[in-house]
């Protein structure tokens, strides 16, 4: 099963990128770990490797050396594999936004940078809200053969068509996080999120904004692909993610807000609607 999955993903992601490949590794019920691969040197970083044995098996199948661990935030379903990962890959750096994440070796903050392999530049974007230590990792391929590939690992801040719960923050902070991503990331940046929540996010978004043409396109992706990650971009989120469209008429009607209502208040109301949504 792993061999067939990795073979498919190798083909799909090679067609999207040049030196950079991203391999989703499903873990737990609906989480994603990832291998971020620099094909110029066959080296990879593991993002949120909750089940390190699965990540190791995928790396071996692909013939790549794991040289780093990356943690998006400290919640157990993302950082809970770090200690085992450190034992499987001794001496490998583990990056993250706070020492609440086990086995962390390299603390990073907003605008910090590091390199994976030889060609992959990683920029850290601090997006506190879901947790105080949430970091989104923006990756660009700097190799001479690059086709301009860009990717972002968002953990539980941004989901395809949705956003994370405000466990340690507020609507104002999630709005600020999304504005940061909007400003920092080109539209063609491919998104890699922390959970396969796309179908549920789509149902809620349609209950708020049923006439949005982008949501019809997202529905086609959901219907055709059980693994939706790696198929959408930041430009897509601007079109179909209702948490990025707080000024739209549909969102204002759903949240019962006025044109002069602050975006932070709209964000809070919209997230509350999502929390209570039963569809």
Automatic annotation (TrEMBL):
User: Pfam families recorded for this chain?
Assistant: HAGH_C (PF16123), Lactamase_B (PF00753)
> Which biological pathway?
Secondary metabolite metabolism; methylglyoxal degradation; (R)-lactate from methylglyoxal: step 2/2
Query: Where would I find the Metallo-beta-lactamase domain in this sequence?
Result: 30-195
GO molecular function (one): hydroxyacylglutathione hydrolase activity
Question: What are the transmembrane regions?
Answer: none
Checking InterPro entries in the record gives:
Clx_II_MBL, HAGH_C, Hydroxyacylglutathione_Hdrlase, Metallo-B-lactamas, RibonucZ/Hydroxyglut_hydro
UniProt keywords, alphabetically: Hydrolase, Metal-binding, Zinc
As cofactor, the record names:
Zn(2+)
Enumerate the Gene Ontology biological process terms: methylglyoxal catabolic process to D-lactate via S-lactoyl-glutathione
Question: Gene3D superfamilies per the record?
Answer: Ribonuclease Z/Hydroxyacylglutathione hydrolase-like
Q: Which reaction does it catalyse?
A: an S-(2-hydroxyacyl)glutathione + H2O = a 2-hydroxy carboxylate + glutathione + H(+)
Keyword Hydrolase among UniProt keywords: yes
**Any idea of its EC number?**
3.1.2.6
State the family named in the UniProt similarity comment for this chain: Belongs to the metallo-beta-lactamase superfamily. Glyoxalase II family.
PANTHER family the record matches? BETA LACTAMASE DOMAIN (PTHR11935), TENZING NORGAY, ISOFORM C (PTHR11935:SF94)
UniProt name for this protein: hydroxyacylglutathione hydrolase
């Amino acid at each position: 099963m792993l061999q067939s999955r990795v073979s498919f993903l190798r083909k799909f992601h090679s067609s999207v990128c040049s030196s950079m490949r991203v391999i989703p590794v499903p873990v737990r019920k609906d989480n994603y770990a990832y291998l971020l691969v620099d094909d110029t040197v066959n080296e990879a970083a593991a993002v949120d490797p909750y089940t390190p044995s699965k990540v190791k098996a995928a790396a071996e199948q692909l013939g790549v050396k794991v040289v780093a661990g990356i943690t998006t935030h400290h919640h157990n379903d993302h950082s809970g594999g770090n200690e085992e990962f450190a034992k499987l890959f001794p001496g490998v750096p583990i990056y993250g936004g706070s020492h609440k994440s086990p086995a962390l070796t390299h603390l990073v903050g907003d605008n910090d940078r590091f390199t994976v392999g030889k060609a992959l530049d990683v920029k850290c974007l601090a997006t506190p809200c879901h947790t105080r230590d949430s970091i989104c990792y923006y990756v660009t391929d700097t190799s001479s053969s690059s086709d301009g590939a860009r990717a972002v690992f968002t953990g539980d801040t941004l989901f395809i068509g949705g956003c994370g719960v405000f466990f340690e923050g507020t609507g104002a902070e999630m709005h600020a996080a999304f504005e940061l991503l909007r400003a920092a990331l080109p539209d063609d940046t491919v998104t890699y999120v922390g959970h396969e929540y796309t179908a549920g996010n789509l149902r809620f978004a349609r209950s708020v904004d049923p006439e949005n043409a982008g949501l019809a396109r997202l529905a086609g992706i959901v219907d055709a692909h059980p693994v939706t990650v790696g198929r959408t971009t930041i430009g897509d989120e601007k079109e179909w993610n209702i948490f990025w469209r707080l000024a739209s008429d549909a969102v204002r009607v759903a949240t019962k807000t006025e044109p002069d209502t602050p975006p932070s208040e709209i964000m809070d109301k919209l997230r509350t609607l999502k929390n209570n949504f039963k569809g």
